[in-house]
Amino acid sequence: MHVPDGFFNAAVSLSAGVVAAAGVTVCLRGARRELDDRTAPMAGLVAAFVFAVQMLNFPVAAGTSGHLLGGALAAILVGPYTAVLCVAVVLLVQAFFFADGGLTALGVNITLMGVVAVLVAWGVFRLITRSVRGRGAVVAASFVAALLSVPASALAFTLLFWIGGTAPIEIGTVAAAMGGVHLLIGIGEGLITAVTVSTVLAVRPDLVYGARGLAAPLVLRGADGDVTVVPGAPAPAATPRGPGWFLPAGVAVAALLAGVVSFYASSSPDGLERVAQDKGFIGQAADHALGEQPLADYGDAGGLPVGVAGLIGVGATLVTGGGLFLAVRRRGGDAGSADEGREKASV
Amino acid sequence: MGAGHASRLHRPGDTLVHRLPPQCKLVAVAGFALVVVATPREWFWAFGLYALLLALVAVLARVPAGFVLRRMVVEVPFVAFALAIPFIGTGERTTFMGLSLSVAGLWAAWNILAKATLGVAASVLLAATTEPRMMLLGAQRLRLPPLLVQIAMFMLRYLDVILDEMRRMRVARESRGFVARDVRHIPVIARSAGALFIRSYERGERVHLAMLSRGYTGSMPMIQDVSAVSRQWLAAGMLPGAALAVLLGSWGIT
């Protein structure tokens, strides 16, 4: 999904650049809280890890393979702020040193793969781990979070392309195709993310940021039978604040983008033909997304007929949108108690 | 979502282009990309002149054409997307060799192909003539947040270490006869990723402690002086300047 130059018009490129810069600025501040004084070295290390993990190809369906985006994985392992920073740095390095992704499209790339993917993944993850606790829930939540983050960022791409893309397309068709195909990739992403998280949980549970509240308290048993329970580190107190204004800010920025930028958008022509070739497009979209799909796979995407792919795409949008909305509402509901906790901690 | 980046792009050399300060080159390439993106797609010959400018830079930097072309492979996935647009585009349609194509879609595909190709070629030339570390120093001089630059620097330093670690794990997998063929093999790869994360994180902690014990206070000392004189800015400005002249010139003609 590294968008090259020339895909988006100047207005969208610049607006996305502003969004990306704002997101990175917010994250630079937040990452200091997640990583203390180790921000630069550890974030650099995680960025290198994300870069390396993106090179792991995994088989999706017969003859097709995808590779990890890594945004969801990074968010769960090291926290959302650091994750956005790491993905942004990875994209920066790929654009400058590997010519992958256009320089004028850097803002779009960081917005899509960094901000949107991590926002969605972390929102979904927190939503699930808040209601269900336990190690299994963390693994399941990482699966769902990674699964949804991929089609969400693909749909955001479609939206941007519709607003300020340089080609006339019908948003419905393309959104269905992009969402459907990327949902398939998302399954692979979700599987890998979940198993990776469970592996790290098994060996070094303290390294999983998303499971910081799960550590059992230290129990000291003296020789004479007295038992002292030492409460765990107050680390989780810092977590609620993170997404607290991360999510609403993201939504506001997206609304702003949609509102302001659509002003520049050319009126999209209403097509007469609903295009018999959207089948062909699905093959192509998969091709662009996976890089290695043989062209022989034209008719359908990984065995799914076009209609089903479309339905899945629309469903994913609804679930993602609803999930985000719920996440925001929940935050609003218990913001007071979180503030209380923090005050106590600071006193 | 290009494939992996096995080989770096940098090509050491000592030409006029190599010697320019990195911040000048960054600004020049970004300016060039902006001019290219802003060019209306109907001006075919303007794009030809842009390509000529890049070829000139390549000759000056002694970067062979084959090198640039090979490195432009990253563009391929999006070329596939661009080629699909004439089929799915809306509006007036035309028939070419029995295929029904959208006229607006054809224009869009040409637009994306031309601009993306020029952008990628310019980035390849930038990466080929600039050492990665210098490029980041240049970015810092251009007021990119220092923390971001530091993260990128640490990433570049750690990258080879982690990639080597990953390569060793792959060798270990493959020497035991493992081939990732279908979905059932995903857990194996994911466990490798988990082990890789733990190994790299622990190594990072050790390195960080070692840095602290050697006096690291949160910022890296600057060793090189990468300041630029106006003559160098002028030299770097030739590329976007010439491109802008082409753009404005065509504006005057049409």
TrEMBL record, chain A:
The keyword Repeat does not apply. It is a multi-pass membrane protein. Residues 245-330 form the PDGLE domain. It is found in: Cell membrane. The chain crosses the membrane at residues 7-31, 43-60, 72-97, 103-125, 137-163, 183-203, 245-265, 304-328. InterPro entries: CbiM/NikMN, PDGLE_dom. This is Energy-coupling factor ABC transporter permease. It comes from Streptosporangium longisporum.
From TrEMBL, chain B:
It is a multi-pass membrane protein. Pfam families: CbiQ (PF02361). Its main location: membrane. Keywords: Cell membrane, Membrane, Transmembrane, Transmembrane helix. It is found in: Cell membrane. The keyword Calcium does not apply. The chain crosses the membrane at residues 43-61, 68-88, 108-130, 233-253. This is Cobalt ECF transporter T component CbiQ. It comes from Streptosporangium longisporum. The gene is cbiQ.
